[in-house]
Amino acid sequence: MIPCVHRPMKSYLPDFPHMSRDPRLGRCPYEGYQRGWGIEFGRLREQIEQDSLYQRAVEVSLGRSLLPADKRYNLYLLLRFFLPRIAFGHVIEFGVHRAGNAIFMAYVMKAIAPGARLYALDTFAGMPEPDASVDVHKSGDFDDLDLEEVRQCAASVGLDNIIFCQGLFEKTTESALMEAGAIALAHIDCDLRSAVAFAYETARPFMVPGGYLVFDDATVSSCIGAAEAVEEYVIRRDGLHSEQVFPHYVFRAPGYR
Ligand SMILES: C[S@@+](CC[C@H](N)C(=O)[O-])C[C@H]1O[C@@H](n2cnc3c(N)ncnc32)[C@H](O)[C@@H]1O
Asked: How many domains does the chain divide into?
């Protein structure tokens, strides 16, 4: 049911012949332009929509994800064209809800990254207690799901590469990361300041050199707490420079050359 493709696929990414492809300040501006500019101002939206693997992955996850299309396009580009360029690692998603995006990513991975697993971490029972001084979400938001139904949905399309880890991140992350060993992409989509900070802090030591740290919420109007966590730890303390600010923040883990 899921096509398995072991060779790199033809790229439709835009080119900027006058630009250097060299790393700068720990990230690659050229590649950031390819994805961010390509989606916002180029033709990538229509080109991705015509890509049959993208179409099938959307079909199996349809209606389950809260992610806007531009963010899904960008994750697709990362999985399909950029992960094969760095060391092998698994994918982890902090904040899964009804697993729309997890199922989407796992479907793409199953087709093009044999052996890669997706670790999907959530309470699967809604938001924990927020910090009301900076988070606008309330405890219990996103509790409209049944984990058994989510598991069945993934199984029904042949996805045996998702590991569901139920509970607070504080309880589940360490064992998930120990099992994974190496992470090539961390999708941090958990809205709250403390959750975003915890996800980043724990995933960081497991990232392969130049691995992708994608922050869904830090530029979203409902998540000033998430923005604060990125500003405080990722930018100010660790001094990382973003490879993309559109459609979401993307940073490269240390070691990218
Ligand atoms: C916006 S939703 C995730 C959306 C999902 N990625 C999608 O594409 O549909 C945020 C999720 O983060 C989870 N979450 C937030 N803080 C958490 C924590 N400390 N531990 C576990 N889950 C947490 C919530 O339960 C919620 O389901």
From this structure: 1
